């Protein structure tokens, strides 16, 4: 099942890249493995998957410790300041930086570990009340402040688009995120590059790729439906 799913997702990514005139190498597939057991991740690993996304700190840490070292771990979910210390040396990229206080906590932990933290700024493009992320109009001021943090490197932007029946509805959201990133990149600010656009999930990653995504976060499409009976979280 996993193998067939992966093959299908790969084919769809290929097709979306072709439609958009993009090279497949421009898009990284992040296998979103939240709620799935280590054994399932190992199965994916054996099929060649090396980039996994988790949305909870504790789950990421547990899986990090149980699985091979050459895995690239991405933290994609909301991050609490007091938990930064657990993942600072484990997550290669934090996709979900949504406040200055969180950025400050990351700066502090990265300084302690003498490393540079790679982050994306989460933008609530659709302005959904239930979602985390900065409002688009808050971005400029935020970027200016974070650029002063020596242990943080901003790599780009991330958004979680609304859950819609027809993924085409999210095309303008993805186009908007791309436009925001182009506008920031143009300013040539220290410590700020806009090389990564993390957008698109199972429901809409093909559209996101057509609109410029460089990272797509696919969970259900690879691993099947999630069982939240024990976890009690959403999406
Ligand atoms: C769960 C999750 C995903 C993957 O969702 P699917 O619809 O299962 O592909 C992507 N991004 C974030 C931030 C998530 O929490």
Write up what this structure looks like.
Belongs to the pyridoxal phosphate-binding protein YggS/PROSC family. It comes from Merdimonas faecis. Keywords: Pyridoxal phosphate. InterPro entries: Ala_racemase_N, PLP-binding_barrel, PyrdxlP_homeostasis. Pyridoxal 5'-phosphate (PLP)-binding protein, which is involved in PLP homeostasis. The protein is α/β, with parallel strands linked by helices. The chain has one domain (2-219): Alpha-Beta Barrel (TIM Barrel). Helices cover 37% and strands 19% of the residues. The chain has nine helices and eight strands. The protein has helices at 2-20, 38-46, 57-66, 84-87, 100-112, 139-146, 171-185, 205-210, 220-223, and strands spanning 28-32, 51-54, 72-75, 91-97, 117-122, 152-158, 192-198, 215-218. It has an eight-stranded parallel sheet. The protein is globular and about 45 Å long. The two termini are 21 Å apart. The mean pLDDT is 96. Bound molecules: pyridoxal-5'-phosphate (PLP). Pyridoxal-5'-phosphate binds next to strand 8 and helix 9.
């Amino acid at each position: 099942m996993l193998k067939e799913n992966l093959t299908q997702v790969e084919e769809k990514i290929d097709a979306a890249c072709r439609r958009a005139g993009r090279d497949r190498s421009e898009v990284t597939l992040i296998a979103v493995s939240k709620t799935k057991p280590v054994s399932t991740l190992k199965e994916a690993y054996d099929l060649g998957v090396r980039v996994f996304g988790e949305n909870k700190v504790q789950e990421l840490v547990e899986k990090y410790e149980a699985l091979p070292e050459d895995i690239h771990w991405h933290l994609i979910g909301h991050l609490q300041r007091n938990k930064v210390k657990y993942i600072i040396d484990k997550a290669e990229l934090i996709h979900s930086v949504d406040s200055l206080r969180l950025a400050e906590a990351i700066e502090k932990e990265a300084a302690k570990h003498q490393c540079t933290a790679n982050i994306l700024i989460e933008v609530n493009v659709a302005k959904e009340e239930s979602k985390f992320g900065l409002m688009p109009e808050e971005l400029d001021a935020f970027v200016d402040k974070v650029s002063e943090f020596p242990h943080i490197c901003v790599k780009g932007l991330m958004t979680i688009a609304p859950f819609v029946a027809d993924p085409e509805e999210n095309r303008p959201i993805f186009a908007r995120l791309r436009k925001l990133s182009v506008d920031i990149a143009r300013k040539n600010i220290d410590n700020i590059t806009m090389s990564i656009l993390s957008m698109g999930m199972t429901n809409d990653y093909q559209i996101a790729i057509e609109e410029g995504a460089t990272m797509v976060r696919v969970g259900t499409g690879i691993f099947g439906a999630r069982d939240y009976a024990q976890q009690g979280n959403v999406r």
